[in-house]
From TrEMBL, chain A:
One of its GO terms (cellular component) is nucleus. Residues 39-145 form the HPt domain. Functions as a two-component phosphorelay mediators between cytokinin sensor histidine kinases and response regulators (B-type ARRs). Plays an important role in propagating cytokinin signal transduction. The lineage of its organism: Eukaryota, Viridiplantae, Streptophyta, Embryophyta, Tracheophyta. One of its GO terms (biological process) is phosphorelay signal transduction system. This is Histidine-containing phosphotransfer protein. InterPro entries: AHP1-5/YPD1, HPT_dom_sf, Sig_transdc_His_kin_Hpt_dom.
TrEMBL record, chain B:
InterPro entries: CheY-like_superfamily, Sig_transdc_resp-reg_receiver, ST_Response_Regulator. One of its GO terms (biological process) is phosphorelay signal transduction system. PROSITE patterns: RESPONSE_REGULATORY. Residues 1-26 are annotated as: Disordered. The modification 4-aspartylphosphate is found at D93. It comes from the Eukaryota. Keywords: Phosphoprotein. Residues 43-158 form the Response regulatory domain. The lineage of its organism: Eukaryota, Viridiplantae, Streptophyta, Embryophyta, Tracheophyta. This is Two-component response regulator ORR42-like.
């Protein structure tokens, strides 16, 4: 089996595991299908936009939750809401699921619950970022070896 | 224009109008969106305050050959419609800066605009759904806007 084939096999296995472990859902697959020779870096570019967006929103949440004078839960919720929207748009299922729980704690004005969710969302975002960076590295290696990137349904 | 605004793949209208004969790779890629071949040139207005979501949703609409304009707040959407620009489809989020999606929708409907409006939002509570429908959207869609949801709507607009 040549190198490109081996790398493609690795890529498919890795992609499958990302789906199986709930890191990404079908929405991510749909975005991969939007990538073509006119926009060969579409997924990498939207992923880095997503990571920027995540970091900004997580920082906003952390700042709002740190306020000693009283937490503005509406402000926290606004950021969580945005993150829910963008994570679902990229197919980041685990991040989205934490956001759903997070919103309930915002609604209940439960600071401890919110802080736990903030920790979880930060953790899930880091995990996802590492996983996607690995996936994109594999893609580069496949292309460098002269292969094409398979779409994993 | 911010670099990210150019990230949406160039519209690949599967209308059979213009463009050279596709090579093998392009043909394979197009087949994945071949489920919708639009006979008519559809236009859409996308209203979302989040740059990332705009990029994704615009990419999706353009992949089906829908000519899409995006704005990032409710007031800009209302002003655009008030100026007489017509769209086949309006995709609007609920939480928007300057003028929120509920009020923007009401104002657009109050102008007599009857085009299809999709409320695409991260909101998921029943009360939010009811409010958005009451404001005038035809369909309430919890994000993400996926091909599964979009395709039947585009077919309907295309008269298929």
């Amino acid at each position: 089996m040549d190198i490109a084939n081996q790398l493609q096999r690795q890529f498919m296995d890795y992609s499958t595991s990302l789906h199986r472990e709930g890191f990404v859902d079908d929405q991510f697959t749909q975005l991969q299908k939007l990538q073509d020779e006119n926009s060969p870096d579409f997924v990498v570019e939207v992923a880095s936009l997503f990571f920027e967006d995540c970091e900004k929103l997580i920082n906003n949440m952390a700042r709002a939750l740190e306020q000693q004078q009283g937490v503005d839960f509406k402000q926290v919720d606004a950021s969580v809401h945005q993150l829910k929207g963008s994570s679902s748009s990229i197919g980041a299922m685990r991040v989205k699921n934490v956001c759903i729980a997070f919103r309930s704690f915002c609604e209940a004005q439960n600071r401890e619950g919110c802080l736990r969710c903030l920790q979880q969302v930060t953790h899930e975002y880091s995990l996802l970022k590492n996983k996607l960076q690995t996936l994109f590295r594999l893609e580069k290696q496949i292309l460098a070896a002269g292969g094409s990137i398979p779409i994993v349904e | 224009m911010a670099p990210s605004e150019n990230l949406a793949p160039a519209g690949r209208a599967n209308t059979g109008n213009g463009g050279g004969a596709p090579n093998g790779v392009e043909k394979q890629q197009r087949c994945q969106f071949n489920e919708v071949v639009l006979r008519n040139r559809l236009t859409a207005l996308l209203v979302d305050g989040n740059r990332f979501c705009r990029t994704i949703e615009q990419g999706l609409l353009r992949a089906y050959g829908v000519e899409t304009l995006a704005v990032d707040n409710g007031r800009a959407a209302v002003e655009l419609i008030a100026s007489g620009v017509k769209f086949n489809l309006i995709v609007i989020d609920m939480l928007l800066p300057i003028l929120n999606g509920l009020e923007a929708t009401r104002q657009i409907r109050a102008m007599g605009v009857r085009c299809k409006m999709l409320g695409v939002t991260a909101c998921s509570y029943e009360r939010e759904r009811e409010a958005f429908l009451a404001a005038g959207v035809d369909v309430f869609i919890e994000k993400p806007l996926s091909p599964e949801i979009l395709v039947p709507i585009l077919r309907e607009l295309d008269g298929q």
